[in-house]
């Protein structure tokens, strides 16, 4: 016999967790179904622990920058405090009790297990069935995906989940995939003295970003001693005598560890999507501006294909909550989605890249300014690599995209995200006063340099 509730949330990533709590606080009866950890990938295996790793690696890098700038330094990397911080402060040894208590404290009924849609507005978890009067919200997220490389499935490679649980740094590391996960992890472990090589099938690192960002990262990586192989076809993988080997067409690369960071697959299999006329083999669940995927069904987060970021998941959750509660509001808009790759330099961008804008046949021009040429960049000196790149729609005179690469690139991006989001005119941006000497003051010469 099915239990009647108002809403069932399947999957408690950042968006699902937030939505379940808010709906319960609004007075609805909410069942939240989670098969792993309340909070999803971000707090346990992704954003939070990896940014603790980035912070630690950054401290080492700054320590190494002392000579010639501020005296002498001797750096002795130690992974133990990083591992301890991730275990104790970030993840509580990968135990979600605190998050689960927080959720149930808001009035949510937490059900552990795999949720499956068995009919419209109906969810089954093991032998329990729930009927959701208002509907079902999906936030099932993604899992690491490995490419079909001969032998790979038989080797004990790391994904992001094992990498954040590392208790020691491998002497050498092969990173398969030069996307966001790959480049962040490569620099972290390299700065802890691992000998790292990134192996990327595409012709550049962080392929979704501006080519200038890829070039910059490659330059910095090679300067730091990180091997970068792009345009490479891996034909096989093996693990023998404690050593991992990636077989390329004409050579073999070996290391103590292999990290596979080749993208994600959406957790849609076994979710019962066919019961509501959707395809579980699709790459994403199509949603409208109110996050509706079907009658009585909402979806938020990575599975919607609108940007695999925690802030997108949370943004969409707030819209879904509003819609479920029957409140009015603007539909989701994605023209100013910000993204930050937390390498050093940080690669931060918002909106369209130049290539994306050209693919949309927008009338554009671009302007770039180099951070080392700015007053603050020159003062900063070591570690000042970076640039600002602007993409302007010349018809409207507004920015449709921007990149802030460099020290604190993600923070500088704030100003550019406001400009893209509010469609501030480039005339207005030129009339602004930019504090001297800040990194963001380099926006001014980038505006001056806008040319077709
Ligand atoms: C290494 C790494 C670093 C990252 N760093 C950042 C960063 O710095 N900033 C940023 O914005 N983003 C970052 N991301 C991306 C970010 O982690 C995700 O975008 C974010 O977690 C949002 O995902 P989500 O809401 O779709 O759900 P997820 O976090 O993927 O969670 C989905 C949840 O649903 C559960 N679930 C799935 N199917 C079912 C089912 N049938 N029944 C019950 N439960 C189910 C899963 O167990 C999981 O807990 C990073 C990703 C990785 C891999
Ligand atoms: N700082 C952040 O916000 C942050 C950090 C990490 C991840 N994320 C999110 O997680 C998502 C997934 O990240 P990701 O790095 O796993 O995926 P990705 O799609 O960004 O990059 C995967 C890379 O692997 C390469 N690849 C695929 N098959 C390959 C093969 N056989 N051999 C060599 N290379 C191969 C691809 O060409 C691509 O460059 C990102 O898109 C991002 O949205 C965000």
TrEMBL record:
Q: Which residues bind FAD?
A: 51, 115, 302
Annotated organism of origin: Actinomadura rubrisoli
Q: Which cofactor does it need?
A: FAD
For the FAD/NAD(P)-binding domain, which residue ranges apply?
Answer: 6-317
Name of the protein in its database record: NAD(P)/FAD-dependent oxidoreductase
Against InterPro entries, the record matches this protein to: FAD/NAD-bd_sf, FAD/NAD-binding_dom, FAD/NAD-linked_Rdtase_dimer_sf, Pyr_nuc-diS_OxRdtase, Pyr_nucl-diS_OxRdtase_dimer
Entry similarity comment: Belongs to the class-I pyridine nucleotide-disulfide oxidoreductase family.
Q: Per UniProt, what is one GO molecular function of this protein?
A: flavin adenine dinucleotide binding
State if NAD is listed as a keyword: yes
Cofactor binding notes: Binds 1 FAD per subunit.
Binding residues for NAD(+): 177-184, 200, 263
Arranged from A to Z, the UniProt key words for this protein are: FAD, Flavoprotein, NAD, Nucleotide-binding
What is any Pfam family matched here? Pyr_redox_dim
Question: Where in this chain does the record put each Pyridine nucleotide-disulphide oxidoreductase dimerisation domain?
Answer: 337-445
Disulphide bridges, residue numbers: 42-47
